[in-house]
Design brief:
mainly beta; 11-stranded antiparallel beta sheet; 13% helix; globular
């Protein structure tokens, strides 16, 4: 159980770091990437080829009765690929809005490819009006509801200007306790390189 909790924590932190990196790049008005451009970080773990900052498109998240939208024209949305070693690979989406009051990240183990359905490995959703204290923080817990942590359905990946298109569903909790209530979080993404 300790290893599973560490894995969830590691990938939640990785997703948050990638969101911050992509946000800083968007705020600096850097040139939009093409299919060969990568989002780099100082850490060798994060400096992986295949990390892209979306130039256009949206990421929609449905939680309770609300829908939250990230728009790549204003917000930072990145598709990330993390290669830890020859046998450990992850992919996912991370986003942060321009106001830095909302961030989301979801990841799965394995390689990104078109027409795949993969189990969720990590996830986090933060809403805040104060950067020092999130108003709401949901994350993947080590105590999954009915052993279902959700899935990412990747319809299209890195084809003809389409960065990534697909859907996801996961179950996130407010804290990491056995009896914590879980919330169904689902969404869709349609991200483009140009």
């Amino acid at each position: 159980m300790g290893n599973r909790r560490f894995t969830y924590l590691l990938f939640s932190v990785l997703i948050l770091i990638m969101a911050i990196i992509s946000s800083c790049q968007k705020d600096d008005a850097t040139a939009q990437p093409d299919s060969k451009t990568t989002v780099n970080a100082d850490s060798p773990l994060l400096a992986s080829p295949g990390n892209f900052l979306a130039a256009s498109g949206t990421l929609q998240i449905k939680f309770n009765d609300s829908t939250y939208v990230f728009d790549a024209a204003h917000d930072s949305i990145a598709f990330i690929n993390v290669h830890v070693d020859a046998n450990t690979n992850y992919f996912g989406i991370t986003a942060i809005n321009k106001a830095h009051s909302m961030s989301f990240g979801i990841s799965s183990s394995g390689y990104a490819n078109s027409n795949i359905n993969s189990n969720v490995a990590g996830g986090q959703f933060l809403l805040s009006t104060d950067a020092q204290k999130p108003a709401m923080q949901l994350s993947l817990s080590k105590y999954p509801q009915n052993n279902d942590i959700g899935s990412i359905n990747l319809d299209t990946y890195n084809q003809a200007g389409q960065l990534a298109k697909g859907t996801f569903v996961t179950f996130l909790a407010r804290d990491d306790k056995v009896n914590s209530p879980y919330y169904r979080v689902e969404g869709s993404f349609n991200l483009k390189l140009k």
